[in-house]
Specification:
Elements (H helix, E strand, L loop, with lengths): L21 E3 L2 E14 L12 E15 L3 E17 L11 E12 L5 E15 L11 E16 L6 E18 L8 E19 L2 E14 L6 E12 L5 E14 L2 E2 L3 H4 E9 L5 E12 L6 E13 L5 E15 L3 E15 L4 E12 L4 E2 L2 E8 L1
Antiparallel strand pairs: 1-2, 2-3, 2-21, 3-4, 4-5, 5-6, 6-7, 7-8, 8-9, 9-10, 10-11, 11-12, 12-13, 12-14, 14-15, 15-16, 16-17, 17-18, 18-19, 19-20, 19-21
């Protein structure tokens, strides 16, 4: 069941205030759990013949920070169990549509106070997303389960905690897609795995009090199971980022990306141009407006690659000391190269959170999701959060 639920930052309560957490000798732990319910009028998000469904949510999470002279450890994790309780007008057992998503991130710095530090980063995730219903055999239904693990390790150079920071990291990633399409929605019809390895360069220089120059580079070799040829790709970009603690911030970055399947360039030069622009404006202490645009490309499990444009808008306001209102929306236009296929994905939501206390809060959210090559949904959710 694809439910649109709150996207609250890990380690913060819904009103946007930092949780106190549990602290002892450089260690800070902030656990929380969300309990909620949700209704969706179109559980399969099909273009027609919608099936309403309702279910429960259990979402525990944890953030951990541990700082000593020898190391600095940061961890954040969240699991979301969406338990479908009933589906109207469908002969599928409701529990079979239930889903569990995971999101884990961690970073370990050895000798964090020294100019040269060792960096280890780990990411792992499991997410259910809507597969385009126009794929062969989809029959109006499609679900893709993406599981991935990413490991990065290397060194960071930051002399005297100064304005310059350079990190050089090796990377290895395993990405698996289990795809289910067609009338028998619950049986995977295909599984494809992507293995990749390479390196990352990340450099940052705060050359003005309010501005940072950022340069990023990446190179990797990859291989897909199945008929796709192995290949390699690279990307590089540079940008100027404003400091987030000022009323108006402009971030601009541009670069180039390229994929080479079987050693032959598969991306066009125009598609390879990447752009990221974002403006963040805080007219008052309680308001924030963010407008962003992105042009990029990405490797795909069902096409040689996807070229996309994405625009997004987010507005947040705190009408009272205990209340936070957030609205956001995005539109993504994508073109699958190598296939006669294009798609438009629209997502929007409005969310309100009310803090009863530092450890207890209530929330509700309504959203609108639509995909040109799939269907629509208008999910409504409510939850209670307990956190420390």
């Amino acid at each position: 069941m694809l439910l649109l639920l709150s996207s609250i930052a890990l380690g913060q309560d819904p009103a946007g205030q930092d949780l106190d957490g549990i602290r002892a000798k450089g260690l800070e732990v902030a656990p929380y759990v969300d309990l909620g319910a949700s209704f969706t009028p179109n559980v399969y998000r099909t273009p027609g013949n919608p099936k309403p469904a309702a279910g429960a949510l259990l979402r525990p999470g944890l953030t951990l920070r541990w700082q000593t002279p020898e190391f600095a450890l940061n961890l954040a994790g969240q699991a979301a169990r969406r338990q479908v309780l009933f589906v109207v007008g469908d002969d599928v057992s409701a529990w079979q549509l239930s889903r569990t998503d995971l999101n884990l991130k961690g970073e370990l710095l050895l000798r964090p106070d020294k100019p040269l530090s060792v960096v280890i980063r780990e990411q792992a995730g499991r997410a259910h997303t809507l597969a385009p219903s126009s794929l062969a055999g989809a029959s109006g239904k499609g679900l893709a389960v993406r599981q991935n693990t990413l490991t990065q390790a290397g060194v960071r150079y930051q002399p005297g905690r100064g304005a310059l920071s350079i990190a050089l990291l090796g990377r290895g990633e395993v990405e698996q897609h289990n795809v289910t399409v067609g009338p028998n929605y619950l049986v995977p019809t295909s599984s494809i795995t992507r293995l990749s390895g390479g390196g990352d360069l990340q450099a940052k220089w705060a050359f003005f009090p309010r501005t940072e120059l950022v340069v990023n580079g990446q190179i990797e070799g990859y291989a897909w199971t199945g008929a796709q040829l192995p290949g390699w790709g690279w990307r590089a970009n540079a940008g100027i980022y404003g400091r987030v603690n000022y009323p108006l911030v402009i971030n601009v970055a541009a670069g180039f990306a390229q994929l080479r399947d079987g050693g032959v360039m598969s991306t066009t030069p125009l598609d390879g141009v990447t752009v990221k622009v974002a403006g963040i404006w805080k007219p008052t202490r309680t308001q924030s407006l963010r407008l962003a645009y992105e042009k990029d490309l990405e490797d795909s499990w069902y096409a040689p690659y996807l070229h996309f444009h994405r625009a997004s808008l987010r507005y947040g306001v705190a009408p009272g000391k205990r209340t936070q209102l957030t609205s956001q929306g995005s539109v993504r236009w994508e073109q699958a190269r190598g296939l006669a296929y294009q798609d438009v994905v629209v997502s929007s939501s409005i969310k309100v959170d009310y803090a009863l206390s530092q450890q207890l809060s209530l929330g509700a959210q309504a959203g609108l999701d639509w995909r040109l090559q799939a269907g629509w949904d208008v999910p409504v959710s409510a939850w209670i959060r307990v956190g420390w």
